[in-house]
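Notes taken during the Thursday session

The instructor put the following on the board and asked us to keep it in front of us for the whole hour. The protein is Glycoside hydrolase family 1. We were told not to look anything up and to reason only from what is written here. First, the residues (421 in total):
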Amino acid sequence: MLDAALAQPESRAQLAPHHGFLFATGIENSAPTIERGRIRRDQMAECGHYGRWREDFALVKEIGCDALRYGPQLHATLRGPGRHDWAFADETFAELRRLGIRPIVDLCHFGVPDWIGDFQNPDFPDLFAEYAQAFARRFPWVQLYTPVNEMFITAVFSAKYGWWNEQRHDDRSYVQAIRNIVLANLKGMRAILGVRPDAIFIQSESTEAFHAECPAALPHAEFRNAERFLTLDLNYGRRVDSLMYEFLMDNGMTRADYHFCLREAPALKRHCIMGNDWYQTNEHLLNAEGHGRWAGEVFGYDTVTRDYHARYGLPVMHTETNLDEGPRGDEAEHWLWKQWSGILRLRRDGVPVLGFTWYSLTDQVDWNHALREQRGDVNPRGLFDLDRRPRRVGLAYKRLIEAWRSVLPTQSWCLQVPLSG
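Then, after some discussion, the predicted structure tokens were revealed:
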């Protein structure tokens, strides 16, 4: 069981069925660069975590969460090929272990070290795999990982929309980013399993849906609704459809890289939980030219998640959501209960949803414009504000956890993890 793995950090036994539900939050650790690499948007710094991490972990316990999406910043820890600065991670992970909080370790969250450059660097997958293995060796008691957070969003924002990191807008750069990010995730998982054979990977990935507002928009919606699956298709070894295959081949992905994904992914998939992230902005309305705007909730979390689950057949964890508290102060709380209702409906219908995450523990900074501008706008969407005072949604989440932890219908799940040699 996960509890047994936490209590016996050196255990390498086969994973037994786990009965229960993970209630989680996260420490916001996005770290892309903007302004052509001149500015690093380190949300751990901007949200005050470096100076208040002990207090933050105590708040995780106070709210009742038993899991925390968390990781050391890649740009600050990976100092060069094979060179690591573990000072901050050593302190923080020792405290998480002492408190009995399960970390879901987030190893790459939207940015890479300056010396790597950006997601166009073809060396990134191997450099990242070495780092992932080094982390697993340093912290062998850790079992839960998100190697590369939101692979789809990382590639789109960096190499399609031109907002972060390489800030490119062309299809070849976009496909190169997808290639490097997915290969990094696959190689990272394989490297971790070499150290921890019973590791579990919770892919935190954006869950999207695209809608046509007129008949002329239908081809655009068809393309985007195929494109949204690209990173997960490659990560889970599912053959992409013909439209996406042509797109990948036309824009620089090699057949060797494509077949590497098909060959390597199936064995890794057995260790995976499909983490999906859901916000009000995840459904898009496309016009005749293919340009999109936010559509609000047309289908909603449970309907779109059901599509992803049907495609991959994996257990699910809701790995991110939040909403500003709004002018009345209660919109975030209403959103929390709406998400929870969607989870209960999925479970009722037989979809194995294993956990829920309000992201993040504290308010964030400048996400109202996707970190593209350094304005210092505080986004009131945390369980606590930046002074670490509870927000209304934080109190509601604590009540939700207290109410449902002991009575939530359990669903057993078991990953068939081979014993180490």
